Amino acid sequence: MLLGPSLLLSALLFTIGVAGVMLRRNAIVLFMCVELMLNAVNLTFVAFSQVLGLGGQVIVFFVMTVAAAEAAVGLAIILAVFRHTRSVDLKNINLLQG
Amino acid sequence: MSAEVVFYLLAGFAVVSALLCITQRNIIASAMWLVSTMFSLSGIYVLLNAQFIAAIQVLVYAGAVMVLFLFVIMLLNVGRGGTDLRGAPVRLVAMLVGGALLAQLFLLGRVTPGGMAVLRGAAGGAGSPMASFPAGQLALTAPASQGVVGAIAEPLFRQYLVPFELTSILLLAAAVGAVVLAKRKL
Amino acid sequence: MTLSLIQAAAPAPAPAGAVGWVWLAVALPLAGFLVNGWLALKRPGAKTAVSAVGAGVLLAAFAVAAAVFVQLRAVPPESPLIVSLWRWIPSGSLDIRFAFQVDQLSTVMLLVVTGVGSLIHLFSIGYMRSDPGYARYFSYLNLFVAFMLVLVLGASLPVLFVGWEGVGLCSYLLIGFWFQDQANADAGKKAFLMNRIGDFGVLIAMFILWWTLRSLDFVTIAERAPVRLAAGGAGITAITLFLFLGCTGKSAQIPLYTWLPDAMAGPTPVSALIHAATMVTAGVYLVARTSTLFAMAPVSSAIVAGVGAFTALYAASIGLRQYDIKKVLAYSTVSQLGYMFLAVGTGAYVAGVFHLVTHAFFKALLFLGAGSVIHAMHHAYHATHSHEDAQDMRNMGGLRRAMPWTFVLMLIATLAIAGIPPFAGFFSKDEILAAAFGRGASQPVWYLYWAMGVLAALMTAFYMMRLMAMTFLGESRLGAAEREHVHEAPWSMTGPLLVLGGLTVAGGLLNLPAFAGGHEPLERWLEPVLARANEIMPLAMPHGQTEWLLIGGAVAIAVVGLLLGWRLTLARTILPAREAPPDTGFSLVLFRKYYIDEIYNGLIVRPLVAISRYVLWKGVDQGLIDGLGANGSAGLARGLGWVGSRLQSGQLGFYVVVFLLGAVWLLRAMAR
Description:
heterotrimer; A: mainly alpha; 3 helices; elongated; C: two-stranded antiparallel sheet; 25 helices
């Protein structure tokens, strides 16, 4: 019941997230596309929990928690970088150049 | 309407919202379209019998995480002027990579419970294919006996207790880290 | 150090007694080198200690040599006694032991080296007294004696070669002793490099010997060569010719002789010891040692004799017109060495060794006497602050009044070298020429060699008397002030001259031939060593009337040469060096030694230097190895690094793309 279509939807959303990550230069939008990818994965877990048990939903619980923590820290980093370079354009964040 | 129709409606909405999210120039608009995607997904969760998760999705993701995003966007005052889509060569690469990824995932995604039952080695078509997945049966019936929250709470505080506690430490670390990183002066 | 005494091919009595201690003769000078070297570095002013050690070890080595001689005289061995010291190069089937070979021939050389060496060390104490490098001089001299003894005592070619190279090194160190002067350093370098060319020949000969005979020990070679190699064949001819190449380098024959006149830049005792009595005779010793091989190769022997005869004539002609007293003696040495090679090439090995011994006596005497003269001249010029050349004979004259002893002793040596009986040189030179004449009966080319030898004898007498006349006779060309300061050398220097004078007079007794009433002791003594060679290539000595004619002719030529030298030199007034007009015509050619140095320079040295500079240095080294190899690989690494660094652009977006590409690829791998 809805397992196949859910997985296809998940794949589609994930791919859109990947494309977004590659296409956008703004760091914050990049981050949002990563959240999109995480949501797609959550959908996969929930879809499978119908077949394989409640463990899937528990994992989704944890994923959300971690995603929240990650969002907080990641945005704090973007804030700190912004203070240095006055922009969130990825083009300007190149101090790792080797 | 049947569950399937609702599902395809919500799915279509999610896809369109996602596409708009990644292509909008205005950052606030991007964020709002992401919120819209999350709402659609929440509805799909309900259809998939994960009501608690649906509620959490709205509360935590759309309600807390996206609000945090919006706060930061407004704090930094970006999102005005200029396109920040990357140049043509990268667009081509993105299309190619995305296409490749999608193709692979399609190949992996053609799964049905019947197919999985066959993979699991269930003999013949004795009854419904779901008979070979007892845990899944439990997932469907548990909310009736324990309530929606109780169904999640039981494995969370029994089998997954240690990861639960560790997650709390993780949150503490994230909170401290975010404060330290965002301070102007240490 | 354990001494294991290995039996030679034929059973010989185990060497007990002095022979077992023969290694002391090498170790003592070596210890002297170390002690004097340490003194040279730490206490260069300790002249008494240096003299005591330097001369003392030599006298002790001579004592060992005498003991060995006494023992061998009592029980002459049929085959050489081997004293093996340690296992040197064990390499598969090539097992070379560091071993000494004590037989009659090496005993002769041992006595000559340590005996004449001791006398020259004693002379040096007085001669080098005021030199700041006193300790360094004695350390080098001791080291030289140690290496020379390794050379003459070696039981195999590699051990001999160690000594061969070692004496070359010491020659370089001692020629360039006063290295602050560029010319002296250059002379040392020239000697060493020319010797290296010769050494290359010895090495090639060793390789061929190993390849054909599978052994490098002298005893084994002498046994296997007649069996495994064809007499007169390509193999044996190649071996002997390459060995002879080494000899031309070490013993200053044509074409590798030009270093010897230049080597006169070193101190005079060094010239006496190294470039007259010992090192330059190493080539003759080598031929005598490998006599079996040379006897088996008549072509090589003919070449050896021919080169020797021609060199004798050629060098004598140059000596006719030299003005530096040491240069005359240097060319005389080259010429006399030519006689020795004429002897061993003819198969008269005993005659060659005999002349080697007598030549050591009178040539050392001549050089040391010249040293006394130069010492006195230096003293005189030093007192008057003059800068004239103390070695130029045109500045000398009439010195017999101031230095009577030196005059008499050098006169004895001159008579000896000219070949006047009963002095030593007469018997040895006569034996050589007789042997050459005798072989002429079967191989006519030897008559030519004999003629060259006779002509050279005439020139020898002439130039030696010229030397005596210009130096000691006539009127003095020194200024009045200098004349006051010229006097006889101290007894520490004249003492050894007396001993050498005595040896020169009595040296003929070593091998007194039958016609003079002797029994040829040296011939008998060396017979076991040279037996096989004499079997293969027997000598044909003239007898009876031919013999007397030859002897009479030789003496006559010597007398004529001496008289001509005396009268013609004193016939014209000789001007001091700074006033003397330059030579003209053929005299100039002789004075300039046939321009041989200039020819070598133009034909060989310049092209080699050009090839080294332009082809090997600029082309190969800088261009190929540096450019392609070192810099090229560095550039390649830098290029690859540059390519890699483009991946580290610092652009997060780029990183994300690469990351996702990797993820897609991974997924693809997992999907299979």
